[in-house]
Amino acid sequence: MLLVCFLLFISFLFRVELGKSLNTDEAAAMGAVYQAASLSKGYRVKKFLVKDANQYPINVQFQRQTEITNETSEQQLIDRTLFNRNNLYPSRKVMTFNRHTEDFSFDVHYGDLTYLSNTDKR
User: Fold this and answer.
1) What digits encode the pLDDT tens for the residues 25-81?
2) CA-based angle 46:48:54, to the nearest 5?
3) Strands of 58-67's sheet, edge to edge?
4) At 6, phi and psi to the nearest 5?
5) pLDDT digit string (tens) for 57-69?
6) Cis (ω within 30 of 0) for the bond into 57?
7) Residue 8 CA to its chain's centroid (Å)
8) CA distances from 89 to 18, 53, 62, 93, 108 (A)
9) pLDDT of amino acid 1
10) What is the pTM of this model?
């Protein structure tokens, strides 16, 4: 109620209708200010929940040695999804490589990005 009275007073004083919309830059700045005020002990603001999410899927790729017979073996390329699209952040994922007895390497990369447009892929 106090805010409404204040807005009416300012509108009356300057004889200008105040804008009540925000563009994206202003919205991000206001969100940051509101989050900072909510985290500080000096201000009392209404509680709100912020959830961070990973926008892109993250995969891990490695080679696994598979034995065909006792004398022959072949390497198989494994590509597993660690985190799906819009997975909450921060989160932890544990992978166990118990079949590897020698040194190995793995690559971490973005997963399937076919849902993105060409503009978004840049």
Assistant:
1) 888 888 888 888 888 889 888 887 878 888 899 999 988 877 777 777 788 888 999
2) 160
3) 73-83, 58-67, 106-110
4) -65, -45
5) 999 998 887 777 7
6) no
7) 40
8) 38, 5, 24, 11, 17
9) 67
10) 0.57
